[in-house]
Amino acid sequence: MIFGKVLTLLRSINDHREYMYKLSEEKGLIDPQVIKISQQLDEKIVMWQKLKYELLSVSSNGNSNT
Questions:
Q1: What DSSP assignment string belongs to 44-57?
Q2: What is the model's pTM?
Q3: Least enclosed by CB within 10 Å: which of 1, 25, 46, 58?
């Protein structure tokens, strides 16, 4: 179900964000591992934005043919 995927993605975003904050406190903002996690987080956020846009488009059109 689509909502299960949304919840999984949102949890993953939150987990990545928390991990990135902790790691950046330990290693600093320019550490390669922190940058990698930040890039992964960016990708997940973009996925969420696209999914949210699709869901809003479907709900406003009343169908999924968009």
A1: HHHHHHHHHHHHHH
A2: 0.77
A3: 1
